[in-house]
Specification:
3 domains; alpha/beta; OB fold (Dihydrolipoamide Acetyltransferase, E2P); 35% helix
Length: 443
């Protein structure tokens, strides 16, 4: 038998908690608390969008989740309710029980941060019971050492995300993007550090003498793909919502060879012999897809002193594809030599070309289509003096934003516009005039 605190209630309430059923809680636990409303403070913040249900014992984990949510989405601090985290607590003077009940029911998304502690928390059970009784969705997250098989019903019937898996957390962010339909997430580069911190907090607490090894994948190799990480992510973003998983699965098992920039590294929580890497495609700023992998540190000792943004070549096979991230396994890494870094990568032209054709055409043109346009212009000598070598790199190197760089990008943009939107004559003429101006000023 559990007695609720007297705060906000005229008399203590006796409640027998059955861990496997929310029904009685939804009907009797919180609604039975008939505390008078405080007229100076509304007990419900109608602007609460995200409600993080958690145990106070997991304050550090909850705080790292809130930090990630604020970094990933353009939402304000008061739109997140997380009672253990400073800046997201309840207002002074409100009825605790009534406010939590109403916000748990009325929020856009309730995130249940599930650990061994939260399953024992009376308030977590109250919040989930209120939400479940109102027949509104719950986003359960497994953290620490809690497994899905340990969840009581009806909570166990929900598909829970595993906070200890990077790909699962990224999928959670995708789910939140869909649920918060009026806002879009920030580029992944702006919240990558917050994601790493949350994964570290969600990992099981270390046990002396035990270091579980990462699971070995049995994914068969399907073949090789020449698509870039960006092109894969863009195809997923452009896909019909009900086909995203199907298209993502079609890339799993494909081998890749990409040029990337070294971004972040951290020791694996499962096995300290491994290093978890986050790599960025070697393209200009504005890119929002990351590449994740694990390697044995003893196989790549140069990682210890490797500078950030150092160019690398990664080969391996795709184990997971999502809107924001590509996971690669069976990885081999190599630092690009100075000679290998010479020359202009075709991918560096992509942002400029997309900007010149406009958002509507850019949305229809994949990286592959744009790269073909670049190759055609180079083969036609527009501009003259440039060629593609055997690696598909433009030789000689042309500086970004130089006249030749802009001229090549404009030639390619005009070709794309003429091919994809023949009726856009005014825009095509404008690009043609820009080409003439560049050629006259920089013959």
């Amino acid at each position: 038998m559990v007695s609720l605190p007297r705060t906000g209630c005229p008399a203590p309430i006796k409640l027998s908690i059955v861990h496997s059923t929310f029904g009685n809680l939804a009907r009797t636990a919180i609604p039975s608390c008939k505390a008078p409303r405080n007229r100076n403070h509304s007990p419900v913040n109608s602007r609460t969008r995200l409600f993080v249900s958690h145990s106070s014992h997991d304050r550090a984990l909850a705080e790292s989740l809130v930090t990630l949510l604020l970094a990933a989405f353009p939402i304000r601090p008061h739109e997140i309710r997380c009672t253990s985290v400073e800046g997201h607590r309840l207002p002074t003077g409100v009825s605790t029980a009534e406010t939590l009940r109403e916000e748990a029911i009325g929020c856009d998304v309730l995130i249940a941060l599930l650990t061994e502690h939260s399953l024992k928390s009376v308030y977590v059970i109250f919040e989930l019971g209120a939400r479940w009784g109102a027949q509104k969705p719950i986003f359960p997250l497994l953290a620490k050492s809690l497994q899905g098989s340990n969840l009581p019903q009806p909570l166990g019937a929900l598909n829970a995300r595993d906070c200890r898996s990077r790909s699962e957390v990224l999928r959670l962010l995708e789910d939140l993007t869909e649920a918060l339909s009026d806002i879009r997430s920030h580029p992944a580069s702006t919240w990558e550090h917050a994601l790493s911190e949350f994964l570290a907090q969600a990992a099981p607490d270390p046990v002396d003498g035990v270091a579980p090894t990462p699971p070995c994948s049995q994914i068969p190799v399907k073949g090789h793909t020449s698509l870039s990480a960006r092109d894969i992510s863009e195809r997923l973003r452009a896909a019909p919502p009900l086909r995203v998983n199907e298209i993502a699965a079609s890339f799993v098992g494909m081998t890749v060879e990409w040029e990337v920039l070294y971004s972040l590294a951290s020791a694996s929580e499962r096995d300290p012999r491994y290093v978890c890497l986050v790599l960025n495609p070697w393209v200009p700023e504005g890119f929002d897809t990351s590449i994740s992998c694990q390697v044995l540190l003893k196989d790549y000792p140069f990682l210890t002193d490797l500078d950030k943004d150092k160019p690398l070549r990664i080969t391996g096979r795709i184990s997971k594809a999502s809107l924001f991230s590509i996971d690669v396994e069976g990885v081999r890494l190599a630092v690009l030599s100075e000679e290998e870094t010479y020359g202009t990568r075709i991918q560096w032209l992509l942002p400029d070309i997309r900007f010149k054709v406009g958002p509507e055409i850019a949305a229809r043109a994949t990286d592959v289509v744009i790269l073909e346009a670049v190759k055609m212009q180079l083969a036609a000598g527009r501009p003259p003096g440039l060629r593609l070598d055997y690696r598909g790199i433009i030789i000689p190197e042309i500086a970004r934003y130089s006249a030749r760089f802009r001229l090549l990008a404009t030639h390619c943009a005009k070709r794309l516009l003429d091919d994809l939107e023949p009726n856009a004559r005014e825009k095509s003429r404008s690009l043609g005039y820009e080409i003439e101006t560049l050629e006259k000023s920089h013959p």
